[in-house]
Amino acid sequence: MHPKKIGRFSNIKIQFIMRASGAGSRLRWKSHPSLQQTRSGKSHFLFLLVVAFFFVTGGMYIFAVNERAVYGYDIRGIEKELAKLKKENAQLRLQEAAGRSLSRVEAGSMQLRMEKAVPQGELVIGRLGPVAFR
């Protein structure tokens, strides 16, 4: 029987094949791809290689983007921590300056009931030599 071209499947040839079996015969369809659809092993391998290349490059791209997003998130957290530490450092400097101020020292001495020393002159007892005595 001759192959027929059917409607939209014009590039696929379909033919009837009679198959004899023990109890009777039945009809079945068998399709054969045309020459345009067949691929040689080399071009099929090349196609699979190109598809695999795109999958690998796509995976690497997704991995790189994800890694950069994680780094960005980490950097953002470090920047927030840095801003918090700078603010805390400024507050500590203010506390230090307040603690060193003369009025604060005078207020502390009054609270401890200290009295101011009255200078009566300078008295030098003597200088020690270069070797310390025991």
List keywords for this structure.
single chain; 134 residues; alpha+beta; three-stranded antiparallel beta sheet; 3 strands; 18% strand
Helix content: 40-55%
Number of strands: 3
Largest sheet: 3 strands, antiparallel
Give the rounded overall mean pLDDT. 76
Structural class: alpha+beta
Fraction in beta strands? 15-25%
Task: Characterise this structure.
With 134 residues, the chain is α+β, with helices and mostly antiparallel strands. It folds into two domains: 1-38; 42-101. The protein is 52% helix and 18% strand. The chain contains two helices and three strands; from the N terminus they run E-E-E-H-H. The protein has helices at residues 41-100, 102-111, and strands spanning 4-6, 9-20, 25-33. A three-stranded antiparallel β-sheet has the order 1-2-3, with no helix packed on it. Strand 2 (9-20) and strand 3 form a beta hairpin. The protein is rod-shaped.
Secondary structure layout plus pairing:
Layout: E1 4-6, E2 9-20, E3 25-33, H1 41-100, H2 102-111
Antiparallel strand pairs: 1-2, 2-3
